[in-house]
Automatic annotation (TrEMBL):
<protein>
    <submittedName>
        <fullName>Polyketide cyclase/dehydrase/lipid transport protein</fullName>
    </submittedName>
</protein>
<dbReference type="InterPro" id="IPR023393">
    <property type="entry name" value="START-like_dom_sf"/>
</dbReference>
Amino acid sequence: MIYILYIVIALLVILVALALFAPKTYEVNRSIVINKPLPEVFSYLKHIKNQDYWSPWKKRDPNMKQEFVGTDGEVGFIAKWDGNKEVGLGEQEIIKIVENDRVEARLRFFKPWKSESDAVTSVEAVDNNQTKVTWGFLGKNKVPANIFMMLYNVDKHVGKDFEEGLASLKEILEN
């Protein structure tokens, strides 16, 4: 009986140690250079509805239900979605726009699991006719979910989605 108690205590110590040392935050982003002037690229990017044309998640469920609240391209605009199991249920709200620099949004996911992240899309002039676009998101890993994040490589799994989306964005804006 005492051995079982020692095993339980040891498991609890291991879980606490893992929770203390597991990553508390995550950040994933990718960049691409688009052969268009910065103001033209930014004007397109600040409108969340345009993501329907280049977002990899919209492609995974073209029939997802969507609802929009507010004026697209302005702080406070909210895009809500309810899709299949690959895209889930959630919403994206524009929380900050720095003209010709970046758009910041809060992502709230409700299904398949509840979480919140901050998305950032930024632009930087390479020259007069080229713009570097960086798209990504960041957030906090709460205990005990942070233990799982030791096994799940967010950058590897979500990074490819950002690459796919940016490639589609480049194709749209350059054609």
